[in-house]
Amino acid sequence: MPTELHVVFGGGQIGPRLARRLRARGHAVRLVRRSGAAPEGVDLRLGDAADPAFAAAACEGAAAIYHCMNPAYSAAAWGRELPRLADSLIAAAGRSGARLVVLDNLYMLGRPGGRPLDEDSPVAPVSRKGEIRARVAARFLEAHRRGEARVVVARASDFYGPGGTGTHFGDAFWPDALRRGRGPLLLNPDTPHTYHFTDDVAAGLVTLGAAPEDVLGRWWMLPAAPAEPSRALVERFSAALGRPIRVQGMPRALVGLVGLFMPIVRELAEMMYQWDEPFVTSDRRWRERFGPGVEVTDLDAGARATVEWAVRHYGAR
């Protein structure tokens, strides 16, 4: 059987991990990013994915295309860049005939209202970024309905795990946690919250890239370990590290005040509702479709892997 070409767009938290998994499956893999390197054995293309000509050339001959890109964390950047990326990759997938697998988040679903979030949850964004995500998600699925491209969307909650520099357990957490034994968190650490492990996200995308055609034209909640409070996850980090990490929270009123001076905190402030009540996902539909034996990384193993990565990545700084 000829080797299939799988093209991964995005060199951040998931793209390189996905590229390695696809390569291990025996596929020819191309990683597309603006700058940087590619994992061993993976072809690298550098350029702007929002440029339709560049994206089409990068996807020529592809069997599957994976959209794992995320612009800078701001509503302005998302509103400007996400529609352009969507249109460019839809056109590239349509031209090549490749399946387009899109990684998305849960911002468009809004408040859980005491219910687990799943494929039946209404699209009801309560943030600017959620509104943008809702419009772009609708564009992808409409493209499938119109026959412009063959599309499937995967969704996940907040990430944790190796490579997760931009997560709540990344650049803002680990330097202080390793040096001073205190982990800064803007969120409420005591409400249950689903966290998706980075390697599990990559594995789910691999599954959707190879599944039969009946998975297309809709979105799927990726599988995750059971939800627990963020404080409990930090306790698992502490056990893996072998010394305590104290959660250092910030009162909601102070988050708003700090946001006046720090743009990234201002952008995060509108998403704090996700920790006002249990924010729990259900992967029931995934398990019904792909089997009850679907494996996810348990939280202790995920914590150990995260700590090992954090010590390597941040420990020398």
Automatic annotation (TrEMBL):
Gene3D superfamilies: NAD(P)-binding Rossmann-like Domain. InterPro entries: Epimerase_deHydtase (IPR001509), NAD(P)-bd_dom_sf (IPR036291). Residues 8-213 form the NAD-dependent epimerase/dehydratase domain. It holds the Pfam family Epimerase. This is NAD-dependent epimerase/dehydratase family protein. It comes from Eiseniibacteriota bacterium.
